[in-house]
Amino acid sequence: MIRAEYLITTPLFMGGAVHDKCADPELRVPSIKGLVRFWFRAVAWPSMRSVEEIWEKEKELFGSADGQGKFLFSSQSSDLKIGVPDSQKPIGLSYLGYGTYGSRKFFQPGDRFTLELKFREHRKKKVTDEDIDYLKKSLTALGLFGGAGSRSRRGFGSLTLTNLEIDGKRVWSKPNSFEELEERIRSFISELSIRDLSEEDDFPPYTSFSSQTRVSVVDGSSSENALRLLNKIGIEFINYRREVGRKEGDGALVLDFLRGAEINEHPSRAVFGLPHNYYFRNIGKSASVEPSGSVNKRRASPLFIHIHALNKGRFAAVLTLLPAVFLPKDKMITIKEKVNKKKRKVENEEKKAEVVPNVNIELIENFLNKFRVVWP
């Protein structure tokens, strides 16, 4: 059996069966299992480097419509405390938690829950050392780089892995200091065999660790709790995105489009994730930038912000870049004017432009370079 204990370090927004902003959050086993699957795919790519092989191993471990996986997944928690929206919304937190922070209930930081993976006894599905190693790495990555719930890539719902046991033997404990956290990150990524990959490798086909992975850390001061540190990162992020937009001419490009000009490129800030919007008060018009087509209108950010708990009430921020192929080959990036439905019916057409995705991942790398680089 594998037993992993996690500490909630920032407000965790996880919805349940009722889709209502006023509803209480729920710690749902299928959602947590989905997160472990996500991190399994992320850690499996450097060694397997085959989507088909990874998918087969994932089905073997976690199960699929074709049959059960190799383990039973359960969670244990003791009365997780629920927080209510706060009227005070610092600018950095409001930006990172857009649509959730200040409007939805959440699980409060400081509480813990435990995941248990009990292996099934089946002569045709024997658990191998490789299986256990993949699960160990998946659970560790979740508690070292990730989080759960809404806005988890922006630092909310950050989970710190405090203890990991395999058959009763402890194989992981929480780093006590900033220096120890740095060393754990380097050691973890080194074990993924990323150094064996060529720097010239293309981006992986999905979000995963690769030769393109970058990690930076920020040491919180003794007076900064987790939310103050996250707010500070949020303010840095706001200012940097504004700076990028100004230097790259994103606003001018979209404004020209709204004024009738033909464009053949997209705003540079698309690399931070899609969709994103523009509003120009001087002309009273707005535009959206999003993946083309009628489905899959989002592209999650390749930047993961994670707040990690250390010893003596200290915290650190872990900023991880996991770049991958930005959009499928059949997808373009659409820039279109946002108009209300009545106006659209009158004009009988929607002003839009579709351009080939050409994102510059160095823009995110430069943001990480503002902090202490841990990897590579």
Structure characterization notes:
With 376 residues, this protein is an alpha+beta fold. The mean pLDDT is 92. The chain is built from 9 helices and 17 strands. The chain has a 5-stranded antiparallel sheet, covered by helices on one side. Strands 13-14-10-17 form a 4-stranded antiparallel sheet, with helices on both faces. Helix 1 packs antiparallel against helix 2 (51-62) and helix 1 packs across helix 4.
Content-based structural category: alpha+beta
Helix run count: 9
Strand order across the biggest sheet? Answer: 4-7-1-8-9
Helix content: 25-40%
Number of strands: 17
Give start-end ranges of low-pLDDT stretches. none
CATH topology of the largest domain: Alpha-Beta Plaits
Distance between the termini: 33 Å
Describe the secondary-structure layout.
Elements: E1 2-8, H1 29-48, H2 51-62, E2 63-64, E3 67-68, E4 71-77, E5 82-83, H3 91-96, E6 106-107, E7 112-119, H4 129-145, E8 159-166, E9 169-173, H5 178-190, E10 214-219, H6 226-248, H7 250-258, E11 276-280, E12 285-291, E13 303-309, E14 315-321, E15 333-338, H8 341-347, E16 352-355, H9 362-368, E17 372-375
Antiparallel strand pairs: 1-7, 1-8, 2-3, 4-7, 5-6, 8-9, 10-14, 10-17, 11-12, 12-15, 13-14, 15-16
Helix pairs in contact: 1-2, 1-4
